[in-house]
Design brief:
Largest sheet: 2 strands, antiparallel
Structural class: mainly alpha
Strand content: 5-15%
Order of helices and strands: HHEEEEHHHHHHHH
Mean pLDDT: 87
Oligomer: single chain
Number of helices: 10
Radius of gyration: 17 Å
Low-confidence stretches: none
Helix content: 40-55%
Strand order of the largest sheet: 1-4
Distance between the termini: 27 Å
Length: about 210
């Protein structure tokens, strides 16, 4: 098992808040983290896996042995993850072992759960609900707040605000896939910049 030697994104958020890092620098750091998170979600979707608990505390950071000074983001804690086929063929054993299927309550972390999970419970889980959680993760990493209504006064870039609002679309059919979000201008604008790893290294070592 790999060693996540640099903590998690939740710890990075706390340090950025303590250091009062300017928002454009937080966007730079977040862009690298969120890009890797979306790449992980694309991989999971291709294998029919829904994570169901995407959040900063489940994003572990480790030094990249191939590129000194760079950090790899790893999506962890698959404790409540399911294969998409599990939602088509819920066995009696699974229903008995997971109370969310009996009561209709949603699994996950409050604040990061998509609206459809709040309304319909665990059976509404999909790749798009993981995308919603990724949007909240981006929002918290950059603004330190979970309410998208705070975006207008945050000082964040127009591209970032558009990225978040698309990821947080209430209707999951109008929410982009992780693959589509990887092509968003916010991520593409930061793709060629090497400053994210330098900034992240400074925050982690602070």
């Amino acid at each position: 098992m790999e060693l996540a030697d640099s903590g998690d994104v939740e710890g990075v958020i706390k340090k950025m808040h303590h250091l009062k890092l300017p928002i454009h620098q937080r966007e730079s750091i977040a862009s690298d983290i969120i890009r890797q998170l979306l790449q992980a979600l694309v991989h999971l979707d291709a294998h029919g896996i829904i994570h169901r608990d995407v959040k900063p505390a489940n994003l572990l950071l480790m030094s990249d042995p191939r590129q000194p000074g760079r950090y790899i983001t790893k999506l962890a804690d698959f404790g409540i993850a399911y294969f998409t086929t599990d939602f088509d063929h819920i066995t009696a054993e699974k229903a008995a072992s997971d109370p969310t299927f009996k009561t209709g309550r949603a699994s996950g972390t409050p604040g990061f759960m998509a609206p459809e999970l709040e309304r319909l419970g665990s059976r509404a889980s999909s790749h798009k609900s993981d995308v919603f959680a990724a949007g909240i993760t981006a929002l918290v990493t950059v603004t330190f707040k979970m309410n998208p209504r705070s975006l207008a006064q945050s000082g964040a870039s127009v591209e970032f605000m558009d990225f978040v609002l698309r990821a947080l679309a209430v209707d999951p059919t109008k929410r982009p896939t992780a693959m589509q979000l990887l092509q968003h201008p916010w991520l593409r604008n930061f793709q060629q910049q090497a400053s994210a790893s330098t900034l992240l290294s400074q925050v982690i070592s602070a």
